[in-house]
């Protein structure tokens, strides 16, 4: 796929787009899941007292 924006040409192919999407999703899941899992394992009284 060839895109023209601001007078320049950009050539996109599917593998780099899929790789970038996969990296973004895995980063979001990892850094969203780990703190949520840690918080879920904590005692609510201890978690609120540490704020």
Question: What's this, in brief?
Answer:
67% of the residues lie in helices and 16% in strands. By secondary structure, the protein is an alpha+beta fold.
How many strands, which pairing sense, and closed or not: the largest β-sheet? 2 strands, antiparallel
The whole-angstrom Rg is 20 Å
Number of helices: 2
The count of β-strands is 2
Query: Structural class from helices and strands?
Result: alpha+beta
What is the N-to-C succession of helices and strands? EEHH
Give the amount of beta strand, in percent. Answer: 15-25%
Mean pLDDT: 88
What spatial form do the alpha-carbon principal axes imply?
elongated
Specify the helix fraction band.
55-70%
Low-confidence stretches: none
The termini sit apart by 50 Å
How do the strands line up in the largest sheet? 1-2
Task: Explain the layout of strands and helices.
Layout: E1 2-5, E2 8-11, H1 14-41, H2 44-49
Antiparallel strand pairs: 1-2
Describe this structure in words.
By secondary structure, the protein is of the alpha+beta class. The chain has a domain at 18-51. The protein is 67% helix and 16% strand. The chain contains 2 helices and 2 strands; from the N terminus they run ββαα. Strands 1-2 form a two-stranded antiparallel sheet. It is elongated and about 60 Å long. The termini are far apart. The model has no long low-confidence stretch (mean pLDDT 88).
Keywords:
single chain; 51 residues; two-stranded antiparallel ribbon; elongated; 16% strand; alpha+beta
